[in-house]
Amino acid sequence: MARSLSGFDYIGVRDSMTARLCHALGTASVPIQRVPDPAFSLEPDPAWAAESATAFPRRNKRTKRAIVRFSNRAGIEQITATLARMGFEVISVVTPLPSARHVHSLSPAAWAAMSTTADLLVTMSFHESIFAIKHARPVVAIDTQPNRFDPKTHESKTRCLMEDFGLAATNHLNLHASGNFSTSLEQRIEAAMEIDYGKVYRRHQDFKQQYAEALLAVKNLTTSPRAP
User: Fold this and answer.
1) Least CB-packed of 88, 116, 188, 215 within 10 Å?
2) 3-class DSSP state for residue 18?
């Protein structure tokens, strides 16, 4: 692996976990650059939100709504049950879950903007978290699958994302690393609902600019004449 990586002139990674892995593999001769995920380059389109609004059931404005997206596996019922206990109308996307209404499928546009149709998004998905941030909407990312985080440090791509935005302590949780998961989740939800996501969105704009600069750096690297 180290020999393979050393054959590149530029290595761009989107999170600190992968950066440390590349350094550990001995790629000191190749610059390792943090490059934001390509999803940061997209500008929200009002048409996404319009399509998402038609994809979900009409909501009662007097009731808080939470949209969740998880695989149906042990422990997930704690998430939907906690949300229901806190007074949320819970809608599960794709996978039928206990204590939740179900939306079978979404178009890409409706999926990208689904956080705009709810008061809170709770998800296992890295990119769904990005799109919630992109729309300045409350989101809690939860690691539920053991193969998606480091068992020793509990680092994961969703945790790295939230760390980049200063949200790891309020908007991220690990199902397998909390002694009282339901209580911890309730605390995260309450904290996440109080955050000023306008400030978070401005940080998103910085990442968008960094992604554009990274593409320009790669373009300049590939168009520059190589040394003989």
Assistant:
1) 215
2) helix
Model confidence pLDDT, tens digit, residues 93-141: 999 998 999 999 999 999 999 999 999 999 999 999 999 999 999 999 9
Report the candidate in 156, 55, 134 with the shortest Cα–Cα distance to residue 101.
Answer: 55
User: Cα(89)–Cα(73) distance, rounded to whole angstroms?
Assistant: 21
pLDDT tens digits, 62-92: 899 999 999 877 789 999 999 999 999 999 9
Please give the model's pTM, rounded to 2 decimal places: 0.90
Distance CA 158, CA 162 (A): 6
Q: What contacts 147, CB < 8 A, 6 or more positions away? A: none
Contact 175, 184 (CB under 8 A): no
- Sequence letter at residue 195: I
Grouping H, G, I as helix, E, B as strand and the rest as coil, residue 122 is strand
Kindly state the DSSP code that residue 32 receives in the 8-state scheme: E
pLDDT at 179 over 80: no
Q: Tell me the longest C-alpha to C-alpha distance in the chain.
A: 69
Please state, in angstroms and rounded to a whole number, the distance separating the CA atoms of residues 96 and 78: 14
* Alpha carbon 141 to its chain's center: 6
